[in-house]
Amino acid sequence: MANNDKKASWQHIFNEIKEKITDEEILKWIKDLKVVSIEANTITLEAPNKYIKMWVEDHYIDYLKDILKNSYQIETNIKITLKGVKARETEKAENKAENHEETISDKHVSNNDYFSVPLNKYYTFETFVAGKSNRFAYAACMNAAKGFERLNNPIYIHGDVGLGKTHLMHAVGNYIRINFPKKNILCITGELFLKEYVKSLQNKHMIEFKEKYDAIDVLLFDDVQIISKGPATMDEFFFLFSKLYSNDKQIILTSNSLPDDIIDLDKRLSSRFQSGLIVEIGTPSIDEKIAIIENYLKINKYYISNDVVKFVAENIKSDSTRDLLGVINTIVVKGQLYNVEITVDYIQSELKNFFLQRDKVLSPNEIIQIVCEYYNIKLIDMQSKSRAVNIVTPRNMAIYLIYKNTPSSLKSIGSIFNRDHSTIKNSITKIENEIKNNNEYTINTLKELKNRMNVFQR
Ligand code: ADP
Ligand code: MG
What we know:
The protein has helices at residues 3-20, 23-30, 50-59, 61-72, 87-95, 111-114, 135-146, 165-179, 190-202, 206-214, 231-246, 267-273, 286-300, 306-315, 321-338, 344-350, 364-375, 379-383, 389-405, 410-417, 421-436, 440-457, and strands spanning 34-39, 42-47, 77-82, 155-158, 185-189, 218-222, 250-255, 277-280. By secondary structure, it is α/β, with parallel strands linked by helices. The protein has four domains: 3-90, 2-Layer Sandwich (GMP Synthetase, Chain A, domain 3); 135-280, P-loop containing nucleotide triphosphate hydrolases (Rossmann fold), CATH 3.40.50; 286-354, Helicase, Ruva Protein, domain 3 (Orthogonal Bundle), CATH 1.10.8; 364-457, Orthogonal Bundle (Chromosomal Replication Initiator Protein Dnaa, Chain: A), CATH 1.10.1750. The strands form two sheets. A five-stranded parallel sheet has the order 5-6-7-4-8, with helices on both faces. Helix 11 links the parallel strand 6 (218-222) and strand 7 (250-255). Helix 1 (3-20) packs across helix 4, helix 7 runs parallel beside helix 8 (165-179) and helix 13 crosses helix 15 (321-338). It is elongated. The two termini are 46 Å apart. The relative contact order is 0.06. Adenosine-5'-diphosphate is lined by residues 123, 127-129, 134, 159, 161-167, 292, 295, 321-322, 325.
């Protein structure tokens, strides 16, 4: 693409996106993005600050790519850089993550600002759905935010990726920032801490490094498992941690596993981590998934029908909440982009990779219908007392197939056929014996009935 074409395509995306999202969103997130460079299928945009950069990356980048793909049938990368940071430098930094900090040339971004993570304003207690899978973690964090968890320090939140650890930790930060504005909060990740430590050593800035940590009232440390990669860093962290801890400063840590399960973690750190409160975030149940989706739709003023919400919650392959919300975003975007009504059938065919492929389970009534059609009799005949062979055989077949293909109990099958559970058991045993004895009629008939059931399932 020639440079001009690409500029034209940003204009095009801008016009397209204007059609799809609210004016408020445009003003807040999109309007101030500027095209800085266009190279081999990569459009680099510049955001005026870190927050807009993060937000656009989290919420709109796939959307923007989709628009481009749709309009030009090309896979275009979209990169967002910070104002004052040259696109090339950002690219270099992304390729070489360890040098990332060197690309920050914006003089407004101080070293300390850079070695911390801005609190995500969206990650609050209000936007977090508390349920069975996370209620202890939620309560512990809420107490910590209010200043009630002094006896339980640190709070160590562990769980698989995408289940809400970072969200909860930032919720504590956001709560404290509003309610106790004088408190000095530092939010950092294991990865940034490692980098900061190495950088401070190289630049002989260890005194500033220590001073910075001395001034903290609340330490929010995300993905602490990563520091086990650096033995010297662990020593330093142990020292900082112990100081904060003995000065009664609140510490919240998140990790993907229990302290003892972090390979190479210093034993002293492991025992410190275990001295406070350890809370786990588990995988959400279907009901929790529904509540999380509904909450998300409400916050973002999106609409998806209840049966689609239920289908997604029941059938999504991944247990991660991040993936769950990702699928919901994709559904919303598709609906808006293609202007189609989103139904269960639509997402089952368009987004099938996200969902478990279940064969439709037939109900007892559907099986009875298939057997009745095959033998040309009625359910009422099967339910009758008749012991005629042309009724008994289909009745036994139906009972056997229901027993083998549905979760129905003997008792509930009995109630369909007006019989007690031992009679039902006899019917099943009879068919099983015939199969064992290679009874040709029974085997062939069952095969044919199974075929009909498969056709019915599709
Ligand atoms: P983790 O840090 O455990 O990998 P995150 O905190 O980044 O997970 O959560 C992933 C995504 O799921 C975020 O967008 C977060 O807002 C959302 N999320 C996770 N759990 C919940 C919840 N219980 N209620 C609302 N949103 C949630
Ligand atoms: Mg996280």
